[in-house]
Design a protein that fits this description.
By secondary structure, the chain is α+β, with helices and mostly antiparallel strands. About 30% of the residues lie in helices and about 30% in strands. It has helices at about 45-60, 95-100, 130-135, 140-165, 210-215, 220-230, and strands spanning about 5, 10-15, 20-25, 30, 35-40, 65-70, 75-80, 80-85, 85-95, 110-120, 130, 170-180, 185-190, 195-200. A hairpin with a 3-residue loop joins β1 and β2 (about 10-15). The two termini are about 30 Å apart. The protein binds thymidine-5'-phosphate (TMP) and aspartic acid (ASP). Thymidine-5'-phosphate (TMP) binds near residues 98, 172 and 174.
């Protein structure tokens, strides 16, 4: 069966139900706009499992997502949405492209979270944009930009608090939003160590895709550790 869409880390398939898609998590990993590539056995499974648990936790805290149901080892069933072509990044601590662009040392905490938008375009390497760019490019209206920012900050508070309870510092993350048929904007795509920076609170050890980006080794051990802590948090029991 042909996917409706194939990205770097996931494929989307139509199901028998018109409004439900199957989202398959791949083992392929890319970094730096696919300049660097690798396959990690079990990445698809780990990211599926982590996204499922985090989506359920977020839903319990009142954050709407496109999750419909669990699928299998590497698949989630999701509601069909129109993905907004704006990626939303929230940063609590300097790292990655922020540190590089601004010359601020990695690990410097921010007084307040920073929200950033980028244009979802592999061709252009997801360039940094602002509300005016989004409006001009027809990616999102001014009101939608404000809504994305507000929702992203709520997601940040919920995730930050949750991860802290399991000994993880949420440094930053990237999320995407989609529009349901009803017009409502909900969290979509994935929330996983591919899309979040997570450091051990005690040791500062990186447990996310930076292990791959920076050739730190034991990449899947990091993801497995994140899943283990979420599963053992006791907050989620299915
Ligand atoms: P950055 O510091 O490289 O801009 O990344 C910020 C956060 O966004 C980090 O948690 C990794 C995540 N991210 C993605 O999920 N996809 C991407 O394409 C990029 C560039 C970053
Ligand atoms: N830039 C993404 C990352 O480093 C992945 C990619 O674009 O290939 O997370």
């Amino acid at each position: 069966m042909e996917p409706l869409y194939e990205g770097k880390a996931k494929r989307l398939y139509q199901t028998d139900e018109a409004e439900i898609l199957r989202m398959e998590f791949k083992d392929e990993a890319t970094a730096f706009n696919a300049e660097k590539k690798a396959v990690f056995e079990s990445k698809g499974h780990l990211n599926k499992a982590i996204t499922l648990l985090l989506y359920r936790m977020l839903e319990e805290k009142g954050v709407k997502t496109h999750l419909a149901a669990d699928g299998d080892e590497v698949n989630l069933m999701v509601k069909k949405v129109e993905i907004l072509m704006v990626e939303v990044i929230v940063r609590n601590v300097a790292a990655g492209s922020f540190s590089k662009r601004l010359g601020v040392a990695e690990g410097t905490p921010f007084k307040q979270p920073i929200v950033e938008f980028s244009y979802k375009s592999d061709e252009l390497g997801d360039p940094l944009i602002n509300d005016d760019y989004a409006r001009e490019m027809g990616l999102a209206t001014e009101a939608e930009c404000a809504e994305l920012k507000e929702k992203a900050l709520i997601v940040n508070e919920v995730l930050k608090e949750f991860f802290l309870k399991v000994g993880l510092r949420l440094i930053d993350f990237k999320i995407e939003f989609g529009r349901l048929n009803s017009g409502e904007i909900v969290l979509a795509d994935e929330v996983s160590p591919d899309t979040c920076r997570l450091w051990d609170v005690e040791t500062g050890k990186k447990l996310d895709k930076d292990r791959f980006r920076q050739d730190l080794g034991n990449v899947m051990e990091g993801y497995q550790e994140v899943l283990r802590r979420i599963e053992e948090s006791g907050e989620l029991n299915s």
